[in-house]
Write a structure and sequence with these properties.
DNA polymerase, domain 1; Rossmann fold; 13 helices; eight-stranded mixed sheet; EC 2.1.1.199; globular; SAM-dep_MeTrfase_MraW_recog; S-adenosyl-L-methionine; Ribosomal RNA small subunit methyltransferase H; rRNA processing; alpha/beta; 2 domains
């Protein structure tokens, strides 16, 4: 999610009305909120009459979950874990009618300097949503220039990735890179900054966050988990915040989009059976929401309905999941 200012305000769920509409009618339905965060979607779903099973791997969201547990006793369940396992985590809570996923980092996480997600606040170079595993500091201080550049390009679409990687490697020869602002200054020194442009470290921080949290793999696994979990008529709504994520979701709903074009002069190849039907047109924030919440400007909602076809095995081919070359 893009950053805007030092005081962007509390987390506001984006495209909320559109998500609720995509999953409606909700009264008495069981919905999995696979990315609970501060609970914005869960609250709206509960207020619409749904039963909600919420999932999140970030331990800092527990107070928000506790508040909803107290307010909606008997209709809200919180399960710690990753949304890539949502079918397993939600299995014991009865048949599920819908799933919502809000992909990426929340403004709540960006605003917590100690989490290390933001290039606008001084903090440790961490970026781990679960607090476990390799941190962003581990990556920038251990990867060679080539693999680091490939990571920045594949996950952040950073066209100046090689120059940035060279500056990072040179800087860490003096001392390890440990803080967010330190890394942001290195990136700005490497590629400069023009007035009015986005901060030069935007794509670098995005790439590192995605790598640290294995976000593309998690997204792919979550989509297939939702396909396994939902039966015919179940609905899936996914909100993404940049083109790489959106392309994965688009091609998941419609695998033919990722395949080679067929010539009308040759025998037609049999297309794969549809696991998702009634695929809605992509929705974006309107002017009113953009004025209230600038962070919604890059959000895209895609939604579809589960068909009766058996769920596919997990297979990322055709989904355009970015791969980092030489980072093994």
């Amino acid at each position: 999610m893009p950053e805007t200012s030092e005081n962007a305000g509390p987390h506001v769920p984006v495209l909320l009305d559109e998500v609720i509409a995509a999953l409606s009618p909700l009264d008495g339905k069981r919905i999995v909120d696979g990315t609970f965060g501060a609970g914005g979607y869960s609250r709206a779903l509960l207020e619409a009459g749904a039963i909600v099973i919420a999932i999140d791997r970030d331990p800092s969201v527990q107070p928000f979950a506790d508040a909803l547990l107290a307010e909606f006793e008997g209709r809200f369940v919180f399960v710690p874990g990753t949304f890539s396992e949502l079918d397993t985590l939600a299995a014991e809570h009865g048949p599920i009618d819908g799933v919502v996923l809000d992909i990426g980092v929340s403004s709540m996480q960006l605003d917590q300097a100690e989490r290390g997600f933001s290039f606008m606040r001084e903090g440790p170079l961490d970026m781990r949503m679960s607090g476990q595993g390799e941190s962003a500091a581990d990556l920038v201080n251990t990867l060679d220039a080539g693999p680091l550049a490939n990571l920045l390009y594949a996950f952040g679409e950073e066209r100046k990735s090689r120059r940035i990687a060279q500056f990072i490697v040179a800087a860490r020869e003096t001392a390890p890179i440990q803080t967010t602002l330190e890394l942001a200054r290195i990136v700005e020194k490497a590629i400069g900054r023009k007035p009015g442009d986005a901060h030069p470290a935007t794509r670098t921080f995005q790439a590192l966050r995605i790598a640290v949290n294995a976000e593309f793999e998690q997204l792919g696994e979550a989509l297939f988990a939702a396909e396994r979990l939902l039966s015919e008529g179940g609905r899936l709504a996914v909100v993404t915040f940049h083109s790489l994520e959106d392309r994965i979701v688009k091609r998941f709903f419609d695998p033919d989009k990722g395949g080679p074009a067929q010539s009308r002069h040759l025998p037609q190849v049999q297309t794969e059976a549809r696991r998702w039907v009634h695929v809605a047109k992509a929705a974006k924030a309107g002017e009113a929401e953009l004025s209230r919440n600038p962070r919604s400007r890059s959000a895209i909602l895609r939604a579809a309905t589960r068909s009766a076809e058996v769920a596919r095995p997990v297979k990322f081919d055709g989904l355009s999941v970015p791969v980092v070359r030489g980072a093994e």
